[in-house]
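Minutes, project check-in
Item: structure for the 593-residue chain
Input as provided by the requester:
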Amino acid sequence: MHIAPDQIYPRDEVVRADFVLKLGPGDWLAWWYCGIRKNYFDNAQPLVLVDFRQLVNGKVSGNSVLWPVPIALLSKFSVGSIWNDGESRQHVGYPVKEFDVSYDEGGWCVSSFEEAFDSGAKPPYPIGIHRLSNTYDKNKLLMFDLVQGGKLVVPCLEFYSRCYGRSSNLRRLLAADPWQDWQSPSSKFYAPLGEPEEPDVWKVKLRRQMANGDVIFLAHAKYDEYTARAARSINSQIQAQFQPSKASIAFIDVMPWHRGRARLKVAGIPFGDDGSFLALNIVGGSEPGGAPLHRLRDTIDASKSGAEGLGGFPIGGRRQVLSPDIVHVTADDSPDGGAETVEVWDTAFEVLGTSRVVHDSRHRKTARLAVPFATAESPHQYAAGDSHGGGKGIGHLSVVPLMDVPPNGVLRDTWSALLHLQKKYVIESVEWYSIEHGFQSQGEPKLIPLCAVPDDVAMRKSDRNWVYIDRQLRSILLASVVVRGLRVCFLEIERKMTARKIRPDLYVEREEALRGMVYVPKSADALTAWVAHMRERIPVERGIIRNLESTTFGWCKAFKHKPSEAPQVAGEASLLSGLEKLGVSLKLRKAAS
């Protein structure tokens, strides 16, 4: 198989994994997932064996190496990622396609090349389109029947790593430990609810290490036995196939965890005349429908106990730092207790169709935990397992979901209003911006994380923590319009939800009141410098963006958010007000004759 240069694209983030240095010199392509193995250095980090193929002059050679990768990092070693000297900077761009499938039993099955051979059935896909090391390969494949008569073939471990929950930590725990449901006091997924259950209301209180997006999977696992069975099956299959006397490899069935119709966006290789497709990467998927979910978390109030964590971070959490350009990860040991956490973005996952409605509630909790031990030295490596011991120089690696613009609120209104203005007025382009992608007109907008306030900046603890929402750094949306050749950028800050008391027994949730900013960059370099400046200064100013008006990097002005009036869409009046601040006028499009 030959891979042309125009099929290779730069990755969003460089990841360095010292444990793959032994692959040898040259480029190596992640080709296939080859089962799960126990990690004898750290039981909390199950390992997936990844088949790497050497690339020679752009051609996939027969030189193959199996190498173990922590299951929490599997998205960083996705099929198609290219590695050289322990680093991955490139990825193969496979054709992308969307499919409607059924998650109902009868709409899918699990098989393998070995099972097909033993039963005399057709192989899951023509082996020549993506040749494996073993004709009787044992790795399980999830196969969906398509309406047009073909089939969508997905490696089970790819489906698991992309569709089970939103965080890699949830998937790591499902594989490492026996399932602990919401009634277990030692559950690593569910915190005690702290309030009565209500009929027909799905409530989940998340543990601190769970991502907000995990609530959909965990709510179904709590209230739907079908999902609970899928959750239990992961670790139970690994344990059942483990034999202490030898290095066992588990080849697990991974079933869809909810029923009903679904949509998957995948990248891979088409085959056959019936529209069949081998999905090597899952790019996005739909969420299960249903009643709104109620997501609960504790808001830690360290001020009442006088306790303070590292860098002013609320007690009970690790100090979080910005991800360096290159992250050194290891699978050979566990993170030190109290060591800092470095966050790296997971591979983007696009939510297709209507997002599940989730309502948030908060319980205020006074911290009574001891301040975690930490040394002054920064870790030289990071691991994704549970923390144990200290002094090893290993920090905690957190692979967090890449942030899209949320489905409602000011950020969503801003983006939707910009698209609306393009239809109404003469606007050459509407684009979103991220550090990794630059300006983009396609796909869901990505957010840009703000920076933590440096320790040497004198601030009150409450002001220093303004930049965090749910223990995650706030982000900003940066979008732009091009009007008569002039690029005008709009910046909006991610808002917290606050509760406003209407009467003694009624509270209404609403977003914080923050201003936006409109900006015309002097140049591309000035834009880059301005984004870096705003990421650092917005947290110091606690979102008071009018304090950051300047002409150093271009022309920028803060603007208030005005209520839109019919027939305007939400956010439209605010954007027009921002343009007016810089004297930019829009020309109505001529009506079609």
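Outcome recorded: The longest helix spans residues 524-540.
No further action items on this chain.
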